[in-house]
Amino acid sequence: METENRTVVTEFIFTGLTESLDIQRLVFVLSLIFYIIILPGNVFIILTIISDPGLTAPLYLFLGNLAFLDASYSFIVAPRMLIDIFSEKKIISYKACITQLFFLHFLGGGEFLLLVVMAFDRYIAICRPLYYSTVMNPRVCYVMLLAPWLGGFIHSIIQVVLILRLPFCGPNHLDNFFCDVPQVIKLACTDTFAVELLMIFNSGLLTLVCFLGLLTSYAVILCHVHRSASEGKNKAISTCTTHVIIIFLMFGPAIFIYTRPFTALSADKVVSFFHTVIFPLLNPVIYTLRNQEVKTSMKKLFIRQVIC
């Protein structure tokens, strides 16, 4: 068919998370309860770190940014998914789809890179404590905070540019509940083999390398801590264990989705649901539950602002 005779796609239709109405209602109720409980907690973490002058160490600065990234990330997919559950046709415009895809990878890529920055911070603090104040000075900290945002933007804009160059002439049914690279690319009216390789290299390989690098760095840190006899040994092990949990929660689903050919699997939607809706809100909470200083500051802020 001639290119000029093709129908240009202006909107996409989601197939949704599942066709079962009972499961959809269950997902809606559980997701809504989860958001009502966890999202305010993440906002409270951010307010605590901002308001408490005692939480000035780089770790808390990074934790505040992680909570902000996760809270922002949770608004990209979940609200529309909850609305679409009760919609007969789950329609999204082409421009809105590209916008959703951009912010999904912008914030997600930024969070991955922030975890790398936090791993470097823990390595210096635990393995090179005498140099910590020199290496992690305020100027370096702010540069390290800017790097994930810039890296996430570059990562995301590459994805968007590659997709914008593809022609879409139908069909327009996305086998998902949100716009993501694997499903959108499959609807292009052209051979996407080369684009898929670029996407796998951009998202998949980068994710895998970061994941393996982070695991290696924390293995080195834990070995160093295990050999030491310092008073803060248990605290260091607790902090590193928390970071490793977050790494598996964030990188596991991403590796499953982006490091393989873009072929549909039965587990894709379930993994995507946890990756985009559940895990982002859990990350800061896990950090907080394992950090005594933040918990103490949150209690003080709650008593001062709410009770008093």
TrEMBL record:
An example Pfam family from this entry, by short name, is 7tm_4
Domain (G-protein coupled receptors family 1 profile): residue spans on this chain: 41-287
Q: Which UniProt keywords are listed?
A: Cell membrane, G-protein coupled receptor, Membrane, Olfaction, Receptor, Sensory transduction, Transducer, Transmembrane, Transmembrane helix
Cellular location(s): Cell membrane; Membrane
**How does the protein's chain sit in the membrane according to the entry?**
Multi-pass membrane protein
Q: Where are the transmembrane segments?
A: 26-47, 59-78, 98-120, 140-164, 205-225, 237-258, 270-289
Q: Which GO terms describe its molecular function?
A: G protein-coupled receptor activity; olfactory receptor activity
GO cellular component terms, semicolon-separated? plasma membrane
Q: Which PANTHER family match?
A: OLFACTORY RECEPTOR
Report the sequence similarity comment from the record: Belongs to the G-protein coupled receptor 1 family.
Protein name, as recorded: Olfactory receptor
- The species is Mus musculus
